[in-house]
Design a protein that fits this description.
The chain is an alpha/beta fold. It has one domain (3-57, 110-129, 138-289): Rossmann fold (3-Layer(aba) Sandwich), CATH 3.40.50.970. It is 42% helix and 10% strand. It is built from 11 helices and 7 strands. A 5-stranded parallel beta sheet has the order 1-2-3-7-6, with helices on both faces. Strands 4-5 form a two-stranded antiparallel ribbon. α9 links the parallel β6 and β7. α4 packs across α11. The longest helix has 24 residues, at 272-295. The radius of gyration is 19 Å and the shape is globular. The structure holds thiamine diphosphate and magnesium ion.
């Protein structure tokens, strides 16, 4: 485990998202944005296990997943700005970030929409004999949808290499988990005979360890595994959410994952100047990302009908050794 790299990713996601919030409020980012602030340790701890040839499916709250995978902040920010230099040439925006060469099979505006894509990608890996796994992130809201149950069933039945990661922040928009679910997640997952672990999603090392343990079985071909990370979004469901459905005090049970890890590293003897230097480097990277996005051209109207259909992919160079 590279502790400084874990800290770097936590820090990058937090500060990227803080910039996004300010830029959105300033009217520079169109559409809708859902921030990942508070949940950074989940993407960071899980995706520290990402290897070339693996895949990822994400959600409407996907910036943290993409950054933790290594999607370049400048082309991501440009995508949020709708500029032609974005990862999807400005046509995807926040909820449709794709970067397939890196295995990023998309953020997704449809709740649970990534689950069947992940199971399909797992089947593809199995049929081609690829060594990778599919990281499938989704929220608690997704677990009430039919495709969640269908996806778990098929992945378990066919022993597909899918690593299901539930980020349980206890709310789906304004609806609390207990108000909308008749089942307990653990017993449901175990009914499909899928290995299950629950973890404190605010503690990046705990997430890293639990994910590593579960991934051993997935990488060894024993089929899917399921990690539930208990977490909390520190911001509203979307930027601008008046948040009338929850009480501020609730957040007290969920420490800030970035501050928690900084304290822990200092306690372990990491010198503060080392952290400060890392933070300064990240600030510079993110300032550059924003500058790049702002200076980038808008897509040409003539390109509007390009990229609507994809040629079938017949070889997968990123799955090679
Ligand atoms: C199929 C579908 N139903 C409803 C919505 C509207 N919607 C967008 S996000 C969201 C809540 C999702 O909650 P959860 O899965 O817990 O993720 P979180 O927002 O907490 O990260 C809803 C209901 C949608 N996008 N897709
Ligand atoms: Mg939720």
């Amino acid at each position: 485990m590279d502790r400084l790299e874990l800290y770097r990713t936590l820090y990058r996601i937090r500060r990227f998202e803080e910039r996004v919030e300010a830029l959105f409020r300033a009217g520079k980012i169109p559409g809708f944005v859902h921030l990942y602030i508070g949940q950074e340790a989940v993407a960071t701890g899980v995706l520290a296990h990402y290897r070339r040839g693996d895949y990822l499916t994400s959600t409407h709250r996907g910036h943290g997943h993409a950054l933790a995978l290594g999607v370049e902040p400048g082309s991501m920010m440009a995508e949020l700005f709708g500029r032609s230099t974005g990862v999807c040439r400005g046509k995807g925006g926040s909820m449709h970030l794709f970067d397939p060469g890196r295995g990023m099979l998309g953020a997704n505006g449809i709740v649970a929409g990534g689950i069947p894509i992940a199971v399909g990608a797992g089947l593809g890996l199995r049929l081609r004999g690829g060594a990778g796994v599919v990281f499938c992130f989704f929220g608690d809201g997704a677990t009430g949808r039919g495709v969640f149950h269908e996806g778990l069933n098929l992945a378990a039945l066919w022993k597909l290499p899918v690593f299901f990661v539930l980020e349980n922040n206890f709310y789906a928009s304004t609806t609390g988990f207990a108000e909308s679910h008749a089942f307990g997640t653990e017993s449901l997952v175990r009914a499909y005979e899928i290995p299950y672990r629950s973890v404190n999603g605010q503690d990046v090392e705990a997430v890293y360890e639990a994910a590593g343990d579960l991934l051993e079985g997935v990488r060894a071909g024993r089929g899917p595994a399921f990690l539930e990370a208990r977490t909390y979004r520190f911001k509203g469901h979307y930027v601008g959410d008046p948040e009338r459905y929850r009480k501020r005090e609730e957040a007290q049970g969920f420490p800030d994952p970035l501050a928690l890890y900084r304290e822990r590293l200092l306690g372990m003897g990491v010198p503060e100047p080392t952290l400060r230097a890392l933070e300064a480097a990240e600030e510079a990277t993110l300032d550059q990302a924003v500058g790049f996005a702002e200076a980038s051209p808008w897509p040409d109207a003539a390109q509007a009908l390009e990229d609507l259909f994809a040629e079938p992919v017949r070889d997968y160079p990123w799955e090679g050794a």
